[in-house]
Design a protein that fits this description.
The chain has 305 residues and is an all-alpha fold. It is built from ten helices and two strands; from the N terminus they run ααααααββαααα.
Length: 305
């Protein structure tokens, strides 16, 4: 009996020692493996980046499984928005006024106002004129489309100006607010150069170059431009009459060209129910004035020339 007990003791002692050695060696091997992997990651940045990418993907998959929605931390980089109070005072006043009048969130308008001022300074166009065109054309809806295909904030005829979007990745960039703004300004520049005047350029822009009248489009843009100049100067601080621009039927399939068939056909949603005489018709409560660029606009353009 005692011999059997001794045998069991010896066997258990041997087993425990073997287990200890195996565990000790296993931990050592694991440590060596971790050390080797660490050295490899330090020596090979490409391996480290691949490992980090796989880990991030795994963590994202776990988050999707837990929350039921896929996270996208880079979405903020695609958003066209800015903090209103980060703008200079003049731009902030303009963005606030437009936000109230057109019932658009101030953060996207802050980004658009800042871009209009930056682009306007580069191309020597009054930024409030650019914003006035956006207001009349789309009411600051970046996804607006007219019945004839004018698209985006400035209602650019993408079929006519397809090549202008090549630098922005293609025609679908018409629905990117900043890309549409930049292309629209380029089209406006060309129209003004061809017509030789701001009012004539607006007539080209709306597709009524060879027509007797543009249906009051230029008058409406210049009236809104005049309001925005007063806002920028601090003379107006509130928009008391919000506008909801409406698309109109029978629009021309051109931009910067004459409308076909001799019939008036503005390319964008000018929102007019009947043609206005730009020389005599008051626009939204403003006194009747000739449809010529505001004096402040002329002075601004001259200062930039």
């Amino acid at each position: 009996m005692s011999a059997d007990m001794n045998q069991w003791r010896k066997l258990s002692t041997w087993a425990s020692r073997a287990f200890f050695k195996l565990s000790h060696n296993g931990v050592a091997l694991l440590g060596l493996a971790v050390l080797f992997i660490g050295l490899a990651l330090v020596a090979r940045p490409d391996l480290r980046q691949a490992a980090e990418g796989q880990l991030a993907e795994w963590l994202q998959q776990r988050q999707v499984q837990a929350a039921g929605i896929e996270a996208d931390p880079e979405a903020i980089e695609r958003a066209t928005a800015a903090h209103l109070h980060a703008l200079p005072r003049e731009q902030m006043q303009v963005a606030q006024w437009l936000s109230r009048k057109y019932r658009v969130a101030p953060e996207p308008l802050a980004a658009l106002v800042a871009e209009a001022y930056a682009v306007g300074a580069r191309v020597k166009l009054d930024p409030t004129l650019i914003l006035a065109i956006m207001a009349i054309e789309s009411g600051f809806n970046p996804f607006a489309q007219s019945p004839v295909g004018a698209q985006g904030l400035m209602q650019v005829m993408t079929r006519v100006h397809t090549e202008k979007f090549d630098d922005f990745g293609g025609q679908l960039a018409a629905f990117d607010p900043l890309a549409n703004l930049r292309v629209g300004v380029k089209v406006l520049q060309e129209c003004i150069a061809r017509a030789g005047s701001l009012e004539g350029g607006l007539k080209f822009y709306v597709g009524a170059a060879n027509l007797e009248t543009d249906g009051g489009y230029a008058a409406k843009v210049l009236a809104e431009h005049q309001r925005l100049l007063r806002v920028a100067q601090g003379l107006v601080t509130a928009a008391n009459h919000p506008i909801e621009p409406r698309a109109v039927e029978g629009l021309a399939d051109t931009q910067g060209q004459a409308a076909p068939g001799g019939a008036l056909g503005p390319k964008g949603p000018a929102g007019l129910e009947q043609p206005l005489n730009p020389q005599t018709t008051p626009v939204q409560g403003l006194p009747a004035t000739p449809a010529t660029p505001p004096t402040a606009t002329v002075a601004w353009l001259q200062s930039r020339s």
